[in-house]
Amino acid sequence: MAASSENKPELAGSQEEKKIEFNALKSCAAFTVPDTNSFGGTFRDYNNAQTERQKSVEEFYRLQHINQTYDFVKRMREEYGKLNKAEMSIWECCELLNEVVDDSDPDIDEPQIEHLLQSAEAMRKDYPDEDWLHLTALVHDLGKVLHHSKFGGLPQWAVVGDTFPVGCAFSESIVHHKYFKENPDNNNPKYNTKLGVYSEGCGLNNVYMSFGHDDYMYLVAKENGTTLPSAGLFIIRYHSFYPLHREGAYKYLMNKEDEENLKWLQIFNKYDLYSKSNVRVDVEKVKPYYMSLIKKYFPEKLKW
Predict the structure, then answer these.
(1) String of DSSP letters for 101-136
(2) Which residue positions form the known binding site for substrate?
């Protein structure tokens, strides 16, 4: 896989000035993390499987961990990288996503467009001048249309859930790690070492991630010529890579560009995870703003 060549968000001045400006941007956030998710429970609680929702989430991860192998990921990237499933606009895809509920998420079971707008509006409030962040929040989960019948109705374990590298050892920080014992790669000496098929510092762009909506939406955006900065594409591609941005796993695979973009992902993550609530967004009221951003950063129609 070729190295990334997308532009980064520009911060003027010296490296030290950029660091100060970035930290100031980060500290201006006013978003308050709620105490409970939309079910009234603790966010990302995967260990207290007392509800039917939590039990179904665990079963989802069992299937995902068994089936996401290096060979499977390569086949799926080749097939879905053709982008020959549909042709539609970003907003049309947002509306299509109304029919999808994420079985891997213990924090919400509402249609996905609600979550997209909650995340985007929270970021818009705290970072009014970073419109690329607002749009990134809106589009980051659009790859979940892979579960829709129009895209072949892929099983949820091939669409959603936390992501992780394949082709090297599975980190114990991955949720429900125990189920990897049934993954064929776990017993393959080519894939079960720390580095596996990779080299230290090779860059995440050269690493195969478990296949799903993150990587698919990244491919859609990049191949359709989006002008989002590289940090926006990094967020789209790795926002479900919780072992990295929550637990610090796999950092030895990162390069300098990854390290810079990770800062933006860690800002984004709070809005992605903790904006899931029962507070509704007036879609028609905010739609004109997001349509203007879509026009700025994406073509009118995209190949999916």
Answers:
(1) --TT-SS--S-HHHHHHHHHHHHHHH-TT-HHHHHH
(2) 44, 102-104, 144, 161-162, 239-240
